C-alpha cells in the first residue's frame, strides 16, 4: 500500500501542475482530493484487510482515471476518441470512495464486521486455483479471495457504466418517439440497446458465478476456522462449564457464518452482498447525481429563466432524508427482535433434537405430556417474538410501500410543470425521472434494506458474542497435568513413570472447593480403586487428571509421552457404523479386521460381529451394559498406558464385570488400571484402595487405605 500511496501522491503532484497550467478549478480539486487519498492509502496499513482491498482498488482507479482526464484537460486526448473521454467527475469520485473506505473502517459496527471478515482475508493457507482457461495453479487462499473481490468490484462498476449508457439510450429513444423519427428509433434499438444489453447480461452471469465461488470458499474456510476454534483445547467443554451467554453454538456455526457472508437462504444479504451493493449504489448515486444536477439547469423558473443549481438533486436528497429518518424511527427494534428470533428458533430445534435422542427414556417415564408442554412453551416464544416482528414490519411495510409508490411520481410531479410549459422535452423528462429514481434508490438504501440490515446486524452480534465466549473460555487458563514430576514424594528415578498429585486443590466453576490437599502417586502396574461418597469429586479428579478441568491449584504430573484413556459411565457413541464406534476416536480402518472381531469376542459381543459396518443410532440400539462393553473394547484396541474406569462397568452383572476385568488384565499387561466405583466386589481386581473422605471444611481429600487383595 505504501508504494501505491507514493504513486497517488505523484499523481496529485502532476494534477497540481496541470491545475496551475489550465487554471481549471476541477483539476485543482482533483489534485487536492488525490493528495488526501494518498494520505489515507499510506495510513491504510492500520485498517482491516478486507477494506484494504477496496481502498487499493479506488486508489488505483484514481490514478488511472485521473491520468486519462488530465490528458483530456491538457489537450493530449486524441480527437478521434473525443466521444470516449471519461467524465471529469469519475476520478474525483473514486478518490473520495478511497477516503470514505478509510473513514468508515473506524466506525465500531464496521470494525466488528471486518474483524470477522479479516480472518479469511488474512489467512496464509495455501490452495489450488482453477481458473478457466488456465491450468490449475497453487496460490494463497487470501490472494485468490482478494483477486475475486477486485474482479467483482470492477464488474459491478462496469454494470453501473452500462446502466448509465442505457439511460442515455432511453433519452434518445423517447425523443425519437416524440419526434416520430422512425430511423433513429430502430437504429437506437438494434445498434445501441441490443449490444449493450448483451454485454450487461454476460457481466451479470459472470458476476453470479464468481460471487458464488467466493461465497462458497469463504464460508468453507470460516466454517473450518470456527469448528477448529470451538473444539481445540476443549473450548466447547469449557464454554459449557462457564455457562457463557453464547447459546446454541451449533446454529452459530451452521447458519450464522453463512448469513454473515451472504445472508443465507433467508434474506440473501451478508457482508459481501452489502458491500458490493453499497458500492454499486454509491457509484450510481454519484453518476446519477451528476446527471440530475446537470438536468436541473433545464428547470428554469417560469417568467424568470433562472435555474436553482442542483434543484432536482436537492429535492431527491430531502425526500430520501425524510424517508430514512421515519424508517429508522419505525423499525429500530428489529435488530433485537431478529437476534431473539434466531435464539428462540435454535432453542426449539434443540429441544426437538433432544427428544429424539432421549426418546426411550421419555417414553418409559411417560414424559410425553411434559415434553409437549415444554415444546409448546418454547414454540410459543418463537411465535410470540415473531408477532412482535410482524407488528414492527407491518408499520415499516406500510411506510416503505407508500414511500416507494410516491417515489415513482415525484420526479414527474416536479418535471411536469416544466414539460407543459415547453421548457423540457419528453426525453429529458423521462431521463429526469429515471435519474431521480436512481438517486433516490441509492439515497434510500437504508429504507429499502432496513429489514435485511437489521437481520444482518443480529447475525453479526451473534457471531461477535460467540467469539467473545470462545475467547473467555480460552482465557480460563490452563490447569493442565505437567509432563514432569517435581513431587518430593518420589525418588528421581521414578519421576518419568509415575502419575502424581501434589497439594492438589480442585474448585467448581463457582469457586467453591471440592477436593483439597490431595497428595498421591499412582504407580505403574499397581491397579488402584478410588471409592467415596456420591458427589465427593471422584469424576472431577479424573477430569483434572485427563487435563480438561480448568479450575484447580497445585500440581498434577504425568509421565512423558504416555497415553491416558478415560472411560465414563455412559460411553459416547458417535453417529456412523459400529466399527467407527469401537475404534473411536481412531480411524475405523486403523485396526485389522481380525483384531476388531477378536476384541468383540473378548468383551462377549460376538453377536455384533456381523453388524460392524452397519450404520445405526447405536446409543439407542445397544443396552447400557453392551455400550459399556463396547467402550472396554475401545480400550483393548487403543492399549493405553493408563486406563481410568469411571463406573465404566456399573451396568454389567458381577460375573460379567469379573470377566471384563480379567480380560483387561490379560490383554493389557502393560496398562495401569485406576477404577472408580461403589461396588465392594471391585476391590478384588485392584491392589490398592484409595478413598475420597470428607474434611471439616466440607470438601474432600484422598486417603490411602490398605489393599485387601492383590490384583487377580
Ligand atoms: N460443571 C459443573 N458445574 C457445577 N458443579 C459441578 C460440575 N461438575 C460437577 N459438579 C459438582 O461437583 C461435585 C462432584 O461431582 P463428581 O461428578 O466429581 O462427583 P462423583 O464423586 O464422581 O459422584 P458420583 O459418585 O455420584 O458419580 C458434585 O456436587 C457436582 O454437582
TrEMBL record:
Entry-linked CDD domains: ABCD_peroxisomal_ALDP
> How is this protein named in the record?
ABC transporter domain protein
Q: Pfam families in the record, alphabetically?
A: ABC_membrane_2, ABC_tran
Has UniProt tagged this entry with the keyword Repeat? no
GO MF assignments: ABC-type transporter activity; ATP binding; ATP hydrolysis activity
Q: What keywords is this UniProt entry annotated with? A: ATP-binding, Membrane, Nucleotide-binding, Transmembrane, Transmembrane helix, Transport
Q: Which GO terms describe its cellular component?
A: plasma membrane
As for family, the record states: Belongs to the ABC transporter superfamily.
State the membrane topology. Multi-pass membrane protein
List residues of the ABC transmembrane type-1 domain: 158-455
Q: Which InterPro entries match?
A: AAA+_ATPase, ABC1_TM_dom, ABC1_TM_sf, ABC_transporter-like_ATP-bd, ABC_transporter-like_CS, ABC_transporter_sub-D, P-loop_NTPase
Highest rank taxon of the organism: Bacteria
Membrane-spanning residues where? 26-43, 50-70, 90-110, 144-166, 186-210, 269-291, 311-331, 403-421, 433-451
Q: Where in the cell is it found?
A: Cell membrane
Q: Does the keyword Protease apply?
A: no
All copies of domain ABC transporter, residue ranges: 499-712
Amino acid at each position: 500500500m505504501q508504494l501505491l500511496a507514493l504513486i497517488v501522491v505523484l499523481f496529485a503532484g502532476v494534477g497540481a501542475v496541470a491545475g496551475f497550467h489550465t487554471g481549471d478549478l476541477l483539476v485543482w480539486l482533483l489534485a487536492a482530493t488525490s493528495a488526501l487519498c494518498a494520505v489515507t492509502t499510506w495510513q491504510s496499513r492500520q485498517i482491516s484487510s478486507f477494506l484494504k482491498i477496496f481502498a487499493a482498488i479506488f486508489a488505483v482507479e484514481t490514478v488511472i482515471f485521473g491520468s486519462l482526464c488530465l490528458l483530456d484537460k491538457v489537450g493530449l486526448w486524441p480527437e478521434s476518441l473525443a466521444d470516449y473521454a471519461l467524465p471529469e467527475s469519475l476520478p474525483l469520485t473514486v478518490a473520495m470512495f478511497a477516503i470514505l473506505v478509510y473513514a468508515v473502517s473506524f466506525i465500531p459496527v464496521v470494525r466488528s464486521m471486518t474483524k470477522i471478515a479479516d480472518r479469511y482475508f488474512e489467512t496464509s493457507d495455501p490452495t489450488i486455483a482453477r481458473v478457466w482457461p488456465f491450468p490449475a495453479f497453487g496460490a494463497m487462499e487470501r490472494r485468490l479471495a482478494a483477486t475475486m473481490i477486485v474482479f467483482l468490484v470492477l464488474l459491478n462498476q462496469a454494470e453501473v457504466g452500462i446502466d448509465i449508457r442505457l439511460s442515455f439510450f432511453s433519452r434518445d429513444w423517447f425523443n425519437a418517439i416524440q419526434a416520430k423519427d422512425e430511423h433513429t428509433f430502430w437504429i437506437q434499438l438494434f445498434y445501441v440497446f441490443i449490444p449493450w444489453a448483451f454485454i450487461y447480461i454476460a457481466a451479470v452471469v459472470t458476476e453470479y458465478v464468481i460471487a458464488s465461488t467466493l461465497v462458497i470458499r469463504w464460508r468453507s474456510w470460516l466454517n473450518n476456522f470456527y469448528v477448529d476454534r470451538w473444539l481445540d483445547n476443549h473450548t466447547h467443554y469449557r464454554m459449557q462449564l462457564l455457562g457463557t451467554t453464547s447459546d446454541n453454538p451449533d446454529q452459530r456455526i451452521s447458519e450464522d457464518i453463512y448469513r454473515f457472508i451472504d445472508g443465507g437462504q433467508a434474506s440473501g444479504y451478508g457482508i459481501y452482498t452489502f458491500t458490493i451493493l453499497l458500492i454499486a449504489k454509491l457509484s450510481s448515486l454519484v453518476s446519477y447525481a451528476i446527471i440530475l444536477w446537470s438536468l436541473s439547469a433545464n428547470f428554469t423558473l417560469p417568467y424568470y429563466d433562472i435555474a436553482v443549481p442542483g434543484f432536482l438533486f436537492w429535492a431527491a436528497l430531502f425526500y430520501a432524508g425524510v424517508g430514512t429518518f421515519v424508517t429508522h424511527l419505525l423499525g429500530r427494534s428489529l435488530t433485537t427482535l431478529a437476534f431473539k428470533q434466531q435464539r428462540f428458533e435454535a432453542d426449539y430445534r434443540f429441544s426437538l433434537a433432544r427428544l429424539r435422542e432421549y426418546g426411550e427414556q421419555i417414553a418409559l417415564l411417560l414424559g410425553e405430556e411434559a415434553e409437549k408442554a415444554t415444546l409448546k412453551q418454547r414454540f410459543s416464544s418463537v411465535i410470540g417474538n415473531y408477532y412482535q416482528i410482524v407488528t414492527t414490519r407491518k408499520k415499516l411495510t406500510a411506510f416503505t410501500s407508500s414511500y416507494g409508490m410516491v417515489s415513482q411520481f415525484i420526479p414527474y410531479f416536479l418535471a411536469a410543470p416544466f414539460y407543459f410549459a415547453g421548457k423540457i422535452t419528453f426525453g429529458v423528462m423521462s431521463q429526469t425521472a429515471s435519474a431521480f429514481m436512481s438517486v433516490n434508490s441509492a439515497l434510500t438504501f437504508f429504507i429499502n434494506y432496513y429489514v435485511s440490515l437489521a437481520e444482518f446486524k443480529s447475525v453479526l452480534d451473534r457471531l461477535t458474542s460467540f467469539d467473545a465466549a470462545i475467547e473467555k473460555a480460552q482465557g480460563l487458563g490452563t490447569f493442565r497435568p505437567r509432563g514432569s514430576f517435581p513431587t518430593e514424594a518420589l525418588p528421581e528415578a521414578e519421576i518419568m513413570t509415575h502419575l502424581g498429585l501434589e497439594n492438589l486443590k480442585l474448585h467448581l466453576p463457582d469457586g467453591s472447593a471440592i477436593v483439597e490437599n490431595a497428595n498421591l502417586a499412582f504407580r505403574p502396574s499397581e491397579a488402584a480403586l478410588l471409592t467415596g461418597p456420591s458427589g465427593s469429586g471422584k469424576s472431577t479428579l479424573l477430569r483434572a487428571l485427563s487435563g480438561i478441568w480448568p479450575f484447580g491449584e497445585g500440581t498434577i504430573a504425568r509421565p512423558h509421552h504416555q497415553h491416558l484413556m478415560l472411560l465414563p459411565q455412559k460411553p459416547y457413541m458417535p453417529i456412523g457404523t459400529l466399527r467407527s464406534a469401537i475404534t473411536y476416536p481412531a480411524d475405523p480402518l486403523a485396526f485389522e479386521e481380525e483384531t476388531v472381531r477378536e476384541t468383540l469376542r473378548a468383551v462377549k459381543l460376538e453377536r455384533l460381529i456381523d453388524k460392524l459396518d452397519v450404520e445405526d443410532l447405536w446409543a439407542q440400539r445397544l443396552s447400557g451394559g453392551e455400550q459399556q462393553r463396547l467402550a472396554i473394547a475401545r480400550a483393548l484396541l487403543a492399549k493405553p498406558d493408563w486406563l481410568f474406569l469411571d463406573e465404566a462397568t456399573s451396568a454389567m452383572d458381577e460375573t460379567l464385570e469379573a470377566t471384563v476385568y480379567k480380560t483387561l488384565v490379560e490383554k493389557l499387561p502393560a496398562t495401569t488400571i485406576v477404577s472408580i466405583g461403589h461396588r465392594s466386589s471391585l476391590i478384588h481386581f485392584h491392589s490398592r484402595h484409595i478413598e475420597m473422605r470428607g474434611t471439616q471444611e466440607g470438601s474432600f481429600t484422598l486417603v490411602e487405605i490398605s489393599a485387601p487383595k492383590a490384583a487377580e
